[in-house]
């Protein structure tokens, strides 16, 4: 039996018995690990906040033949604001589910760790958490090899014409489709999207993490972007994610509708579990057409 000290985010907590918890911890060095936390749900337990879902904590773990148990835990950041806002809580829970499906147990995936850190900081304060979640889930898919093809037609391979306004996107073919009739026929589910939507998709794949959530989208582009993101996630993961449906009817929006008035969609780059690395980042992606 060995003692390990790791810092990580609690991605999921599962109650066990009357006072215990099983938690999934996303760490930079060990990747996703599962640990038991005895007595963590007791009101006076020192593990109570440190093992709460979405907390960023430092853990001292007993490791024995691939099994981990929490010996000591010190909370660094609870992100309590997520627990006090229904919209943010639902968005964080959805993204955590996607992250768990994208992660591999006991394998270091530092790119996913950093992405989750930026997401959690942004979710804590960003004015449009639903948009943030859809940006993040597309980036997550890209990190595990499921990025849509956006620099050329998925059928013929030709790059898009800069003068072309009828940009097509196919969920089944996983990328852009040019305006050639033969390509449109072969990708039978092609839908025409706004240039701003195509630019938003590229931003999700290419933007550095500190600027990933710096977006300014028109209502039309936002709605179209959310629809594509939702359908693309379902197609690639072969799974129907249902948590965001809880937001239907809340402020007039949900994963497939965006008709309510929304605040300006801008955020600043955040960091990897500690205070922001690069405060005041500029470089917004403006996709309003």
Note poorly predicted spans.
252-272, 274-283
Provide the helix percentage.
25-40%
Please state the average pLDDT score: 87
User: What fraction of residues sit in β-strands?
Assistant: 15-25%
Tally of strands: 12
Question: Which structural category fits the helices and strands?
Answer: alpha+beta
Strand neighbour order, sheet with most strands: 1-2-3-5-4
Structure explained in plain terms:
The chain is built from seven helices and twelve strands. It is α+β, with helices and mostly antiparallel strands. The termini are far apart. Helix 2 (86-102) packs parallel to helix 4.
List the helices and strands and how they pair.
Layout: E1 2-16, E2 20-27, E3 31-37, E4 56-64, E5 67-77, H1 80-83, H2 86-102, H3 110-125, H4 129-143, E6 167-170, E7 175-177, H5 181-186, E8 191-193, H6 195-206, E9 215-217, H7 219-237, E10 253-254, E11 257-258, E12 285-287
Parallel strand pairs: 3-5, 9-12
Antiparallel strand pairs: 1-2, 1-4, 2-3, 4-5, 6-7, 6-8, 10-11
